[in-house]
Amino acid sequence: MNVTIYDVAREANVSMATVSRVVNGNPNVKPSTRKKVLEAIERLGYRPNAVARGLASKKTTTVGVIIPDISSIFFAELARGIEDVATMYKYNIILSNSDQNKEKELHLLNTMLAKQVDGIVFMGGNITEEHVNEFQKSPVPIVLAATIEPNNTIPSVNIDYEQAAFDAVTYLLEKGNKRIAYVTGPADDPINQKKLAGYRRALETRGLPYDEALIIEGDYSYDSGIEAYEKMAELAERPTAVFAGTDEMALGVIHSAQDHGISIPEQLEVVGFDNTRLATMVRPRLTTVVQPMYDIGAVAMRLLTKYMNKENVENHIVVLPHRIEYRESTK
């Protein structure tokens, strides 16, 4: 049987209201009474019921976090940033994987709300009108992390993906590369559309043509990077450089190119995106755009705490800085 607040009150010979005040840290309790209640809690092994407390206070101090894939290094780092700030502000986390599936995302959103969470951090791919409608109907605040909602109506934390891609491709162009392949994630993801826009703008700035044959769609994975290079190897004129939308795809490109006898970076320069730990595990080590994943998660959670506590929020769209970490996969 679960020990209840009633059991503690009877054991300590005080009212349930007094036990509640002790549990919730109310200072208006005599030290001797507080000691008596805490000893009763210890003896009985009482654990306060967060849901019951939430019904009374209308707060459960619990935050829902919906991410595509916790096994991904990228999302794991984001989740870590969220968790650390949540702990700092004394919030608990309920974490769910959505597999970037729209139906599952919407189902998890409603499941989180049914669990009486105080707020939600959401990470996804393609944010549809249906998503936005659900977000706007939510009784609790929602913040997007590393996720773009085209109309900027939902609070979010990101980097400038178009400028980051522009900077990466410009760096490769400055080294004399004229045929630069772009290995992208799913084309319907707004973030990938922004990266493609940055890629195209960099080419246009140099007066170079845009070649569809050099745009290869992957699914963010290592295997899709391998498959991407297989397609490049079949081109009559192979690229001399590759910009990959994720580090994982960049690693696939490097290993597949090496299997074809291509020397990195002498015959093929490669730039990744994210600066995950994978970037330093590959040889040669990967030049990559630094997307501050931990910071995005931490700032998103801090922004959410402001909304949950009804603090003043000046900017609901937060854009964090990016940079390029230069390593040995480029000359």
From TrEMBL:
SUPFAM superfamilies per the UniProt record, alphabetical: lambda repressor-like DNA-binding domains, Periplasmic binding protein-like I
Gene3D superfamilies named in the record: 3.40.50.2300, lambda repressor-like DNA-binding domains
SMART domains linked to this entry: HTH_LACI (SM00354)
A molecular function GO annotation: transcription cis-regulatory region binding
Alphabetical keyword list: Activator, DNA-binding, Repressor, Transcription, Transcription regulation
CDD domains from the UniProt entry: HTH_LacI, PBP1_CcpA
Name by which UniProt lists this protein: Catabolite control protein A
Function: Global transcriptional regulator of carbon catabolite repression (CCR) and carbon catabolite activation (CCA), which ensures optimal energy usage under diverse conditions.
Residues annotated as domain HTH lacI-type: 3-57
